[in-house]
């Protein structure tokens, strides 16, 4: 099986390295030529709970791609459509795509370009931190769930088998939208708060538990209005559980802020605001959080980064 992993971020590198170790033919697609050159020269270095190892995986910045069986999309949500357009000419009707991204709209963006039956959605509780280009720390392990799985010999079951061979804890589920919203609500309760407070996941409940719960409750209200069946009974308790299980993980949005990159807040907290407005559901906490993160993005070049001595 030939697998194309799109995006050499923390999750893309984690999955590509484990899949390569399991014996699959893996190729990584990047958009930065210099970074691709570096990864080709030095390989992918993994440390943490997976052990320490270096895996050599070819990295390219453009096609042609031939005979790709599986595409794993791990780019930022705001790049999904452009990535899909760039892949259109190289994939066939036999190619399966799966998104393991954050936020809303990724699966729909892929289905707008490729046959909907070839597009899967997925969530993962694996925690990985990008330390530097090509180097990640596997900080926490957890379940990966993919769908839709209508039963029988489905594409979801095929992909699950691939991931299991690479050592991931995987199962399939028929209702993929519930999966995506379940992951979205967890991100609503963690990602932006980590980026604002600049702490690891485990520290969040002791610092901002009340406002985290308010943000999650808004998201749950919107999901109920949409008729979404969430994959857990107590959403905020699930957020707290994830904080605990990934206590040493640096959330992806915090990684973006620390590296002065654009975040996915408009596809996470901002998506709750957008969807809430369709149903007349107030989402003031998520609106404020979205505005704060966008303000942080605009402040990258004017921040005060050192202690200023008091005058007088």
Write a concise synopsis of the structure shown.
The protein is 43% helix and 18% strand.
Notes on the protein architecture:
The protein is 43% helix and 18% strand. It has 312 residues and is of the alpha/beta class. It folds into two domains: 2-174, Rossmann fold, CATH 3.40.50; 178-298, N-(1-d-carboxylethyl)-l-norvaline Dehydrogenase, domain 2. The protein has an eight-stranded mixed β-sheet, sandwiched between helices. Strand 3 and strand 4 form a beta hairpin. Helix 7 runs parallel beside helix 10. The longest helix has 22 residues, at 176-197. The protein is globular. The protein starts with a strand and ends in a 14-residue tail after the last helix. The mean pLDDT is 94.
Number of domains: 2
Q: CATH homologous superfamily of the largest domain?
A: NAD(P)-binding Rossmann-like Domain
Q: Please give the number of β-strands.
A: 12
Report the uncertain regions. Answer: none
Q: Per DSSP, what share of the residues sits in E-state strands of 2 or more residues?
A: 15-25%
Give the helix/strand class.
alpha/beta
């Amino acid at each position: 099986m030939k697998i194309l992993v799109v995006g050499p971020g923390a999750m893309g590198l984690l999955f590509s390295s484990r899949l390569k170790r399991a014996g699959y033919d893996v190729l990584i697609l990047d958009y930065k030529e210099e970074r691709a050159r570096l990864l080709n020269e030095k390989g992918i270095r993994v440390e943490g709970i997976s052990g320490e190892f270096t895996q050599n995986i070819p990295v390219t910045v453009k096609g042609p791609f031939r005979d790709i069986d599986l595409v794993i999309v791990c780019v930022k949500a705001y790049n999904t459509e452009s990535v899909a357009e760039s892949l259109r000419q190289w994939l066939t009707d036999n190619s399966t795509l799966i998104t393991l991204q954050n936020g809303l709209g990724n699966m729909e963006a892929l289905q707008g370009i490729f046959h909907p039956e070839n597009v899967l959605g997925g969530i993962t509780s694996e925690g990985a931190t990008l330390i530097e280009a090509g180097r990640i720390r596997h900080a926490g392990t957890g379940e990966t769930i993919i769908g839709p799985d209508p039963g029988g010999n489905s594409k979801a079951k095929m992909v699950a088998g691939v991931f299991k061979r690479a050592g991931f804890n995987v199962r399939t589920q028929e209702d993929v939208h519930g999966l995506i919203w379940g992951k979205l609500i967890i991100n609503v309760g963690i990602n932006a708060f980590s980026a604002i407070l600049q702490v690891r996941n485990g520290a969040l409940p002791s610092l901002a538990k009340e406002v985290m719960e308010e943000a999650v409750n808004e998201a749950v209200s919107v999901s109920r209005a949409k008729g979404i069946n969430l994959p857990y009974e107590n959403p905020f308790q699930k957020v707290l559980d994830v904080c605990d299980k990934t206590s040493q993980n640096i959330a992806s949005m915090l990684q973006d802020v620390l590296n002065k990159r654009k975040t996915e807040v408009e596809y996470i907290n901002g998506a709750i605001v957008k969807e809430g407005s369709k149903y007349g559901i107030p989402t003031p906490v998520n609106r404020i959080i979205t505005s704060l993160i966008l303000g942080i993005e605009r402040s990258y070049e004017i921040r005060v980064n050192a202690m200023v001595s008091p005058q007088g």
